[in-house]
Write a structure and sequence with these properties.
The chain has helices at residues 2-10, 27-33, 51-60, 64-68, 78-90, 104-112, 124-138, 149-165, 181-193, 209-216, 239-248, 257-271, 281-293, 314-324, 341-349, 380-391, 403-407, 436-442, 479-486, 497-502, and strands at 23-25, 36-41, 71-74, 94-98, 116-119, 141-142, 172-176, 198-204, 251-255, 299-304, 328-336, 354-358, 366-374, 396-398, 424-431, 449-456, 462-470, 489-492. It has 504 residues and is of the alpha/beta class. The protein folds into 4 domains: 2-49 and 149-322, Rossmann fold (3-Layer(aba) Sandwich), CATH 3.40.50.1100; 51-142, Rossmann fold, CATH 3.40.50; 326-401, ACT domain (Alpha-Beta Plaits, 2-Layer Sandwich), CATH 3.30.70.260; 420-502, ACT domain (Alpha-Beta Plaits), CATH 3.30.70.260. The strands form 4 sheets. The protein has a 6-stranded mixed sheet with strand order 1-2-10-7-8-9, sandwiched between helices. Strands 5-4-3-6 form a 4-stranded parallel sheet, sandwiched between helices.
């Protein structure tokens, strides 16, 4: 199998549309992690993503009749732009079906390349269903984003370039995994020619479809997929990529949203490139590999797979970077409600830098404060800080890894309610489109009251919403049945300590 893919990769027609991108040294990262770290710069492609390689190679394999019919794809971003550019180069009509929630910057980028954009549905699967309808109606030729041998061969040219650009020993190549086309292409080429080099896939922890498939021994469908790194937010690994990866990938590393944000910053500091979160996934995995294995003086390569990010999303990424680098601890600390207690608390903290301090008087003789403190990376310093506070008789709840605390509580004002009442708390992901809130409200039965609501734009296709609901006790058993019918992802947060301490 690998020999056949190597031949296809060597014959791939990608350079009529794509560029051979540089393998850039990362001196600051290399010094920090005591290894020679290199970044493959796919962000420098004409459409700022590697996707143009596979799209063009697939189109180059089409018959004249297939081209004359026009091509179509369903995509929310990088594949759409890669196909649009490829079609423009070949003079072929292209139609791209995109979810209605796709940020306007990506829609306009595809239109600027001459493709027709059709907006349909709130999610990729809905857009794909509409694309299939258009294929049935008009006979368009479908260009898949990853599950196709020609697409895989096009993406595999990334691996071919890496081996040519760095013929010396390489410990491992870290590859972002969504549907698996890029990872499969690189693994096929590298494992055939240089089996000593590890090929390691990296996935978001909440979209780890390859890891799930490897664990199960077969392809599985994830019940939910996180969309923070939308470029790799895929619920099931591709069938053709998995046929390669199940035997030729050396492992999969999963990373958090905070770790991806920290990697965005790392790439910027060494290359001045602003990667999208999915573009920084591979570096986040590389860093984790070094921390877990302790390797030194090795050559490690990661792929910056793309730079198609919204500018207004950078604020959110910057906020999460310190947490991703484990340089900030987020704590809930209980202090006495009396004059001078804050000063006494700061005395215990000592010379440490306080990055955030939120407090509003509630009632009683105890106060709960939400505090951010600068700590050293690695976790040991955070543990020492917590022990230091507890030794001074301050009860502490560590919220550093609490998503509700990071997304909502730290930005909420107003404090706790004056009088206690029954309330259920839920966190939602709403599609960023007109009418999303009204859709939510219209599904709530009469007699249910919204007692708290917090929303903050993160520059992504989905907004994060925190809601408090009051409802009759007899309706509690039907609550989640109603929420399921809305179709938005949600998490119950009623028992979350961040909610209990600061808003309940």
């Amino acid at each position: 199998m690998l020999e056949a893919y190597v031949k296809k990769i060597l014959q791939a027609r990608v350079y009529e549309a794509a560029s051979e991108t540089p393998l850039s040294a990362a001196p600051m990262l290399s010094k920090r992690f005591n290894n020679q770290i290199w970044i493959k710069r796919e962000d420098l492609q004409p459409v700022f993503s590697f996707k143009v390689r596979g799209a063009y190679n697939k189109m180059a394999s089409l018959t004249p009749e297939q081209k004359a019919a026009g091509v179509i794809a369903a995509s929310a971003g990088n594949h759409a732009q890669g196909l649009a550019l490829s079609a423009k180069k070949m003079g072929v009509k292209a139609t791209i079906v995109m979810p209605c929630i796709t940020p306007d910057i990506k829609v306009q980028a595809v239109r600027a390349l001459g493709a027709e954009v059709v907006l349909s549905g709130d999610a990729f699967n809905e857009a794909l269903d509409h694309a299939r309808t258009l294929i049935a109606q008009h006979g368009y030729t479908y260009i898949p984003p990853y599950d196709d041998p020609d697409v895989i061969a096009g993406q595999g040219t990334v691996g071919m370039e890496i081996l040519r650009q760095h013929p010396d020993p390489i410990e491992a190549i870290f590859v972002p995994v969504g549907g698996g086309g890029l990872a499969a292409g690189i693994a096929a080429y590298v494992k055939y020619l240089r089996p000593d080099i590890k090929v390691i896939g990296v996935e978001p922890a909440d979209a780890a479809c390859l890891k799930a498939a490897l664990d199960a021994g077969e392809r599985v469908v994830l019940p939910q997929v996180g969309i923070f790194a939308e470029g790799v937010a895929v619920s099931q690994i591709g069938e053709t990529p998995f046929s390669i990866l199940k035997d030729h990938i050396d492992g999969v590393i999963t990373v958090s949203a905070d770790e991806m944000c920290a990697a965005v910053k790392d790439i910027f500091e060494d290359t001045r490139a602003v990667a999208e979160t999915s573009g920084a996934v591979a570096l986040a995995g590389l860093k984790k590999y070094v921390q877990e294995t302790g390797v030194t003086d090795r050559t490690l390569v990661c792929i910056n797979s793309g730079a198609n990010t919204n500018f207004d999303r950078l604020q959110h990424i910057a906020e999460r970077t310190e947490l991703g680098e484990q340089r900030e601890a987020i704590l809930a600390v209980t202090i006495p409600e009396r004059p001078g207690s804050f000063k006494q608390f700061c005395t215990v903290i000592g010379e440490r830098m306080v990055t955030e301090f939120n407090y509003r008087y509630a009632k009683g003789d105890k106060a709960h404060i939400f505090v951010g403190v600068r700590v050293q990376p690695g976790g040991e310093d955070r543990a020492a800080l917590i022990q230091q506070l507890e030794s001074a008789d301050y009860p502490v709840e560590d919220l550093t890894d609490n998503e509700l605390a990071k997304l909502h509580i730290r930005h909420l004002g107003g404090g706790r309610a004056l009088h206690s009442f029954e309330e259920e708390a839920y966190r939602f992901e709403f599609p960023e489109r007109p009418g999303a809130l009204m859709r939510f409200l219209s599904y709530l039965p009469e007699g249910w009251n919204i007692s708290m609501f917090h929303y903050r734009n993160h520059g992504a296709a989905y907004g994060r919403v925190f809601v408090g609901l009051q409802l009759p006790r007899e309706d509690l058993s039907q609550l989640e049945e109603h929420l399921d019918s809305i179709g938005y992802r949600y998490w119950k947060e009623t028992d979350n300590p961040a909610y209990r301490l600061f808003t309940a």
